[in-house]
Amino acid sequence: MTRIAIATAAAALAAASAGIAFAQQGPKPEDEIRYRQSVMNVIGRAVGPMGAMAQGKASFNAAVVQKNSALVDSLIGLPFNSFGPGTDKGAPTKADPKVWTESEKFKQAAEGAQKAVANLAAAAKGGEEAKFKAAFGEVGKACKSCHDDFRTKEFRN
Amino acid sequence: MTRIAIATAAAALAAASAGIAFAQQGPKPEDEIRYRQSVMNVIGRAVGPMGAMAQGKASFNAAVVQKNSALVDSLIGLPFNSFGPGTDKGAPTKADPKVWTESEKFKQAAEGAQKAVANLAAAAKGGEEAKFKAAFGEVGKACKSCHDDFRTKEFRN
Asked: Is the ipTM of this complex over 0.85?
């Protein structure tokens, strides 16, 4: 065997080991899919009332904004750890295959969302409606952009 | 119509109105079921590593305990608002019918869980393993007690 062939074989072995380790020890793909959907569902419920306030459909409530934005801030980082290899299928999902084929772009979008949410949570502490609306607008843009690019309209299996 | 008949009719009308208001404005039963399951799923993922530490299967990690207990503390109150009238069915659920027939007992169990989790989050800030284990033990008891009494083994529709 050449040196390159040995290195390639070693890399393949390492990858296989990692795969086995993932399959044996890590959460199953269906659990990862369910987990990231769960987090998104909880986030959505917390974002709803803030969206209504931002659109003027509900009165601004500083306490609700502070509580909900803090909750979203503590949740927003969680789903992005659950898009690992092999979690593109195993249960109905709206995750676009681009999550895995354009992973760098997805990572940047995820980081953008986390940054926008952190800014919202910080702005919410001040209790000023105008600053909330500005920060919430950025969160909305980040959510929409990532969903447009990486979420399919219908569930796929 | 007698006075009682009028009062009964008025009560029925009020109940019907409330029902319509619920159906039109509130979340649908299936959304409530999905929401409370989502929250419980996210809580479970955060509790897991703490359980392993409490059982000595993983090394105590003060930072993880602090982060995860704070997350659970911010989530534990949420599902209990989603067991309203009519949410005993509409999607597969493990919620025992006793949630609605023994609602006072359920409320007490829910409050007990919230108190135990608040104590855990407070204890976690100190970073002491012994205090974490004691507080986590109480959380485990509260979870188990409520699940034993109010969660069925299999999903029902």
From this structure: no
